[in-house]
Structure formats: structure tokens, C-alpha cells
Amino acid sequence: MKRGESPIKIMTRSFNECDIVFVATYPPRECGIATFTKDLVSSINQRLPKNTKAGIIAMNSNGVNIYNYPSEVIYQISDTDMNDYIEAAKQINDSPRIKMVNIQHEFGIFRGAWGDYLLAFLEIVNKPVTITFHSVLSDPDPQLRKVVKSISEKVEDIIVMTNKAIEILRRTYHVNTPIHLIPHGIPKVSFDSQDDEKTRLGYDGKIILSSFGMISSGKGYEHVIEALPNVIKKYPNLIYLIVGETHPIVRKEQGENYRNLLVRQIKKLNLENHVKFYNKYLALEEIIQYLKATDIYISSSMNPNQITSGTLSYAMGCGRAVISTSFLHAKDVVNDKRGVLVGFGKPKEFEKAILALLGDDGKRRDMEKNSYYYTRPMTWPNVAMHYCDVFNKYLDLKGKEVESLPEIDTSHLIRMTDNFGVIQFAVQASPDTESGYTLDDNARAILVCTKHYEKFREFKQLDLIRTYLNYIRYVQNRDGRLYNFVSKDRKIEHWSEDAHGRAIWSLGYMISSPNIPDDFKRDAEQMITKAIAASEEIKSPRSLSFIIQGLYFYNRIANSAKIRRHISKLADYLVSLYKSSSNPSWNWFEPYMTYANSKLPESLLYAYLATGKREYLDIGLESLDFLLLKTFKGDIFVPIGQRGWYFKDGEKAEYDQQPIEASYMIQALILAYKIVRDEKYRKYAVQTFQWFIGKNTLNQVVYDSSTGGCYDGIGENAINLNQGAESTISYLMARLFLMDL
To answer: What is the pLDDT, as a whole number, of residue 402?
Structure first.
């Protein structure tokens, strides 16, 4: 596009097609802020309702417009052209659809004195504006202080990435605008050893140090190189990778002076075989590959006031021990459990730190794990969740919660299933074939696949159901009992009343579905008939609750007075437990709450539907309301934790929280809503589902949209990052049942 032409002419999406506008650099421009913005917008789009759209106003440098932008870019601003800033603000004002603007701010993106051209945009735009400060300089001159203060006064919210940035803005710039701390986003990757990636890169048997990012003076690489000769004497198989191209602006103004300086230094120290450049602007996949191959990541910035480092965040996010100069961000995130801080321009300190970490494999491995777990709240889904919490004030998303739920994805369930059944456990997202199989998981999987097939008619779900039915047949003995565990070598072990009950529930549900093939139902009916006959001696309240549900669904087809009498018998037993245990301050079936608590009131609601007996409805709702009282803090679902349960006269255990508890609660609430149409049950069901997508005690996303799996639970300080069968199936049950609202 020639200067003077309106950039709006070549845009494929207009201002009137966007609800939120981001002002930032954007790919294919090669810039760290551009990459950040692309990842942020992509993650936010996954959380917004499908009809809520984001648009980008892309910042171009010095009038250069050589970029073939994607369709989400609605406008381009030349950073040196004040008219472009003004025109963009006017276009935003004229769009009735745009609700808010977010600016990704970095010095150098906006021109004028300390980027004060941006003030022209902010003076005119009349929509709410939030701004993300990627840099907050701690020792500003008067002009810088004035510009930052003026920008801050013209926006509704400020987002920063470290506590130190908040402190500087408050104390040094005297900013009074609301400030939100949201960390720098990082990609979600598995925690792996370096070996596989070293093999792929051709570095088998090598020790890899690495640094990555756009190269410019001030990176401090020369001090790392100077530290290497003595290290290599002890570790001659060491290679230091400097990954990334020279910054385009630096290359334009200074050429390759800094890189050439490094090359001369490498030759002088005879390190040609030990320091390698990878001179390219990296795609995310390449960055991850090099970081995963890295034994120690080196962050050698010479700027002590650097408030944010995306490269340091990425390295720690891949679970790598780090050695870093002590700039502000590094001091915030690196301690002796995650890495080593060194002085600026101190080769001897780099040398000492590298030798210390290479000489203690155990300590380095601990640092890797600590870095990985420390950075889990920084993954893009978690960062996007916190951005949306800020944006929701302006986007008016109330009542659209269900519209913004993740797409249903059974790929991890399929990954966890072999030709025998669904495998019990996973190591991160990889099935742990040594863990064997359980009836619990295979029975619940039948329910999920049946529900999925009812909604979407996806035929591969029938193949899965057949696999799970075959598993149930395999574990049922001659007297009808259904055994729970099967080892890897197909040895049947462990009778479980709960598993037996869950199988009856799932088989009953499948039989009641009008969409499932008749031959499947005939097989299931043979198994459920024998299983019901074998359940006469079961007294566990939760087992009976599962059985009541299975009988209810089975009876929708059988329409049998005998089955209804059986339901009444079991429900009466639960009622007797309730009456003997409850009092005005404890409306519950037992003097304690443990697991699968919501199944007890839910089963009485099903008994009411089957028999019409009002007492079942009254006690079901009363006990469900009591459970809600004990498992919600405000609008956050906090299930009874496995680490101690909850006894009537004791303290409620809040950890470890399990996905299955959220799933079961959602099912009970949806049933209550369908029966009595009380809006509070619908609201609570949606709020409970939010537990999976970040509204929980850790404020972290539990569902992994990149795999279709669900993490195994929430501890007091961290999420269990394994994605086993129970957790994934529980999530899918919750997501599918929520479609009934």
C-alpha cells in the first residue's frame, strides 16, 4: 500500500464486525509483541462466545507496509503518522459494535517522545481502553514520567506482568488507575527430558546451553562466551546455542555489528565447535524444540531494569533450569530452587554457575521440575482467563456462559482407549499402559459416548461403546458380579460395590437411548439383568445411588412395576439414613461427606421421577441445597477434598479436589433444574462447570483444550498435570450434560 492511501481499503474485516479491538504489532511482523498478541488473541477467542469477535489494529514502523496480514487485522497505523492514530480512534468511535480496546504497549512501537503519539489516539477514542505495559522503566526522566502518567489517566485498566511493575507505577509514576497482575503467557508443553529433542536436532550426547531471542547489543552474550573456555575443559561435549536473528531495526541501523563481534570473540577463544548460531526468526514450534533440548537456559540481559522477559518465561515454562543476570523480572521469578542469578557482565559468575549446575544432576533436575510447576499458571489458557476477567466488565457477557464453553473433543478419550478398554492412568497426556483398566472408567465412558452419539451421531462413538461393553462382559462373573480392576496382563481383580453400581447406571442409560443400535442394547440388557440380581446385598449409599439411576433409565424402556418397587426400596433406605443422621444444622445422609456426594440427592430426584413420591423430591432438594451450602464459596465451586473429607463436627478438607466431583454436581443440578425449574440450580450448574475452565481455588484451567484431556485434580498449591481416564471422562460428562440446559 502506498503512503497516503487509506489502509482500510485492503482490510477484509471491518470495524463493525468486531466487539473488541487490540492495538499492537502483529505477525507476520517479526516482533516479540506481535507474537505475544497473536497468542493472546488466539487464547482469548477460545474463551469468548462464538459470536464475539476480536479485531487487530496493526502498528507498522516508519510507514513501512510490507506485511500480508491475516483477516483479523482491520486497520494499520504507521507509527510516525499522527493522522493514522486519529483516524483509527474515529473508526472505533463510529462502530456501535465495538465495546472496548486493548493496547499492547512497548516503548518503540509508538513514536514521538517516549511514544506520546499514542496520546492522540487516547484523547479521541471514547470506548473503554485497557493497556498492557510490557515495560515499566524504574528510573524515568521527567518526560517519560509525564507520558506514562498521561497514558495511565486515559485508560480504564492497566495490566502488568510482575509485582515489581505495580510497585514502580504506584510509587514512581503515582498512577491511581486500577492495575491487574497477569503474567507473561507461555505455550502449554509437556514436561520431558532433553534426550528426544537432542536426537531430532542432531545433538545426541551433547550438553546444550542456549539463549534465544532477537539479537542486539545489550543481550550480554559476550559475557557467557567468555565464561566457556574453562567449562569446556571439563565438559568438552558442551555446545552453546544462540538462537534467533538480529532484530530488524538493529539490522537496519547497525547491520550485523554485534553478531560479528561475537563471531570474532568465538574465534579468538577457539570456541568455533562449541558456540553455534541459529540465525532465523523462530516459529513457536522451533522455539519449543530448542528449549526442550536445552540442559541450562542462559538469560544474560544487561538491562537491570528489564521488567518482563518472554524468553525467560518460555524457558522456565519448558521446565528448564536457568542462569540469569539479576534484572527485575529475573529477580521476581528465579530463586535457588529454579535457577541461579548472577551479576551483570560477570563471566566468572556465569562460569561458576554453569559448572555448579552441570556438576549436580540431581539439583538441576529438581530445578527443572520446580520451574515447570511454578509456571503452570502462566500458560496461555490461564492468562486468557485473567484477561477475560478484566474485559468482561466491558463486553457484557452475562448470560452467554454456555455459548463460550470449549468445543467437545473426545480425542484424549480415544487416545486412552485400546482394543480392550480405556486405560486407567496417564503420565501427563500419555496413557500409562502399566496402570491397567477399571470398570469405573469403562462404565462412565459408555455413558459419555452414548450421550455424545445422541448429540452428534458420530459413528466412532459406537466403536468405543462396543469396546467398553466388551470390557464389562469380560469382568462379569457367572453370578452377575462386576469386578472392577483388570491388570495389564488381563488378570481380573477387586470386587467393588461402587463400580458395580456405576456399571448398572451406565448400562441403564445406554439401554434407554433411542439412538443406540438394538444389538448393543440386547447385550447391555443381558449384563444389567444379571448385575441387578447380584446387587441385593449392597448397602453402600453411593453404590445404591448409582443403581437407582441405572434402574430409572432402564425402566424408561422396561416400564416395570417390579423395577419401580426396587427403586422405592433403595430410595427408602437412603431416606432412612437421612432421617437418622440429619438435624436442623446438618441436612445429610451420614455424619460426614466424602466422595460422589451429589449422587445421593440426585438419586432421590430420580426416584421421585420414577415413583412420584413427594418425600423423595423434598429430601433430594433439601440435601442438595445443603451440599451447595458446603461446596460453594461465593460463586466458586470448592468440592469436598479427598485429603480428609468433611466430618460433621470437623473442618472441611478442600484438597485434593477431583474433576469427578464437579461433574457429578453438575448432573445433580441440571436434574434439579429440569424438575422444579428453579433458576438457581441452572446458575449453580454453570458456575460449577467454570471449575474446569479456571474459576477455582487456584485460578487455573483444569481442562486442556490442546489434548482434549482433563488434569487429575487441584491440590493446595498446584494442579496434578496427569490426564487420566476418570478426569477426562468426568469433564466430558459435565460438558455433554451441560448441553441439556
So the answer is: 67
